[in-house]
Amino acid sequence: MSREELAAELGAEVRAGQATVDALDEAVATRLGVNRTDLRCLDLLLNELGQAATPGQLGIRLGLTTGSVTAMVDRLTRLGYVTRSRDPDDRRKVVVRPTPLAHRRAGELYGPMAAAGAALLDAYTPAELRLLIDFTRRSRELQEQYLSQVRHEQTP
Questions:
Q1: Whole-model pTM?
Q2: Per-residue DSSP letters for 79-109?
Q3: Lowest mean pLDDT among 28-32, 77-81, 120-124, 146-150
Q4: Which domain holds residue 100?
């Protein structure tokens, strides 16, 4: 296969993978009874923000207004997926945390896939894993660059 054909095949696989991730996220959101933004909030709390965040931090990461964050946290609290409490170090701040229910449901829905993914990675050498990390990181950075451009570009 030529370099161009390989690049085209890789591009097709990346697009198909993105579509599958999108479909999986939609299915998980449906199973949890939340919308996609709520699901992203749970992902941030469970995986990226160290199990706690202020509503302001969530708003920045999710691109939401203060009112939208309040509504989202209200929904997730009603469903039992998050709690909100005063920050013990600064009583003026509110902290949002995932509940044991959120941890359990995420484990049920994503745990088997995470285990299968870990087994899949066993087939790659450390050098191949570094290459995959480099490609994934560069692809993400490229998408972030274009996301910023699209968000800030004026439409005619």
A1: 0.85
A2: TTSEEEEEETTEEEEEEEEE-HHHHHHHHHH
A3: 146-150
A4: 3-123
